[in-house]
Design goal:
This protein is mostly helical. The chain has one helix at about 1-100. The longest helix has about 100 residues, at about 1-100. It is rod-shaped, with a radius of gyration of 43 Å. The chain starts with a helix and ends with a helix. About 0% of the residues are buried.
Length: about 100
């Protein structure tokens, strides 16, 4: 009878331990599901960032091209200003010769 009592208690304890282990397994599965979703969210964010980086690279390239065009136009403007300056100097010299001849 004592043996049956201990075996009964052991069976009850074993059943309780199995239930605790099952509960722990279920909690672990739930945590793994949460981690899996978090991982997927991180992957989606990384993909969005990759697209954003590519867009930024494209914008940077276009901006660099625009700056090169602006620099070229600035060079032309500077050349034009130099030409105007030279023409003003020539005009001054011509005026001075006209005053001398008059």
């Amino acid at each position: 009878m004592l043996k049956r009592f201990f075996l009964g208690n052991s069976a009850i304890e074993l059943k309780e331990n199995i239930e605790r282990v099952d509960g722990n397994i279920n909690r672990i599965k739930n945590e793994m599901d949460i981690l899996d979703e978090s991982y997927k969210d991180v992957q989606r964010s990384i993909n969005k960032m990759s697209v954003s980086v590519e867009v930024l690279r494209s914008i940077l390239k276009e901006t660099q091209e625009n700056l090169q065009q602006v620099n070229a136009v600035n060079e032309e403007i500077l050349e034009g200003l130099e030409e105007i300056k030279d023409n003003q100097l020539k005009l001054e010299q011509w005026r001075m010769t006209q005053e001398v001849t008059i």
